[in-house]
Amino acid sequence: MKIGDLARATGVSVRLLRYYEEQGLLVSSRTDGGHRHYDEGALTTVTRIRTLLAAGLPTRVIRDLMPCFLGEGPELDTCVLEHLQTHLRELDTRIADLQQARTSLGDLLDASSRASRAEVSPG
């Protein structure tokens, strides 16, 4: 299938498909005219890439995980589960840090609003 057909079938832009190929995530062959051609497995590959990107994994990690898929679904071999669990813990830490920053910012806004109201209140 041509790159435009793959883009339409997956909802992923041609530009992103080229990027995935540059990153070693997606493979194409070339026609005599130099056009990219993808086999039917490319649909599954792009879906898997999108799933892993949605999970917050960088393309360098995704490249390593691509051979670890089981069957046609999104399931990965157990040998990569520890890596995924580490990534999940890192996300949890970042979320906790962001929640703390949000709380601190909210407290600062509240205190600043109270101070502004006190300055303009006759008193």
From TrEMBL:
Transmembrane segments: none
Domain HTH merR-type: 1-68
Protein keywords: DNA-binding
Pfam families named in the record: MerR_1
InterPro entries found in the cross-reference section: DNA-bd_dom_put_sf, MerR-type_HTH_dom, MerR_fam
SMART domains cross-referenced by the UniProt entry: HTH_MERR
PANTHER family to which the protein is assigned, alphabetical: HTH MERR-TYPE DOMAIN-CONTAINING PROTEIN, REDOX-CYCLING DRUG-SENSING TRANSCRIPTIONAL ACTIVATOR SOXR
Name of the protein in question: MerR family transcriptional regulator
Species, as recorded: Streptomyces huasconensis
